[in-house]
């Protein structure tokens, strides 16, 4: 039996049961859940970086977004609050749409 030791989506136990397999699982407390989400975010980010097609990239981005949504309650926040902060930052500093890549800023203009 493979050993995973990682956070999985909520529907995975049912999928395993429907496949007539047995599993061992723990339900994490809040602190453990946050640590597991951070690890899973790293895993999914690596998978996004390694995606070789647009379809794969979108799948991995969806996983990242799902993890972001899952961690918000652990920070006493909501999707709506996150979006409000995102829009405020975008208004103040802009987005990342134009592909600007800053090389250097010179401190004095002599």
Summarize the model shown.
This protein is mostly helical and 110 residues long. The chain has helices at residues 12-18, 30-50, 54-71, 79-93. 55% of the residues lie in helices and 0% in strands.
What do these coordinates show?
This protein is mainly α and 110 residues long. The chain has a domain at 12-81. 55% of the residues lie in helices and 0% in strands. The chain has helices at 12-18, 30-50, 54-71, 79-93. α2 (30-50) runs antiparallel to α3 (54-71). The longest helix is centred in the middle third of the chain and has 21 residues, at 30-50. The protein is elongated. The protein starts with 11 loop residues before the first helix and ends in a 17-residue tail after the last helix. InterPro entries: MSMEG_1276-like_NTP-PPase_dom (IPR038735), PRib-ATP_PPHydrolase-like (IPR021130). Residues 31-61 form a coiled coil. This is Phosphoribosyl-ATP pyrophosphohydrolase.
Annotate the secondary structure layout.
Layout lengths: L11 H7 L11 H21 L3 H18 L7 H15 L17
Pfam families: PRA-PH
Keywords: Coiled coil
Protein name: Phosphoribosyl-ATP pyrophosphohydrolase
């Amino acid at each position: 039996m493979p050993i995973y030791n990682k956070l999985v989506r909520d529907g995975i136990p049912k999928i395993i049961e429907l496949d007539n397999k047995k599993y061992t699982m723990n339900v994490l407390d809040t602190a453990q859940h946050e640590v597991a989400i951070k690890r899973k975010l790293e895993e999914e980010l690596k998978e996004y970086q390694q995606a070789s097609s647009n379809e794969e990239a979108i799948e991995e981005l969806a996983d990242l977004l799902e993890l972001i949504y899952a961690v918000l309650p652990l920070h006493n926040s909501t999707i709506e609050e996150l979006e409000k902060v995102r829009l405020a930052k975008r208004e103040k500093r802009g987005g990342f749409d134009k592909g600007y890549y800053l090389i250097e800023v010179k401190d004095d203009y002599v």
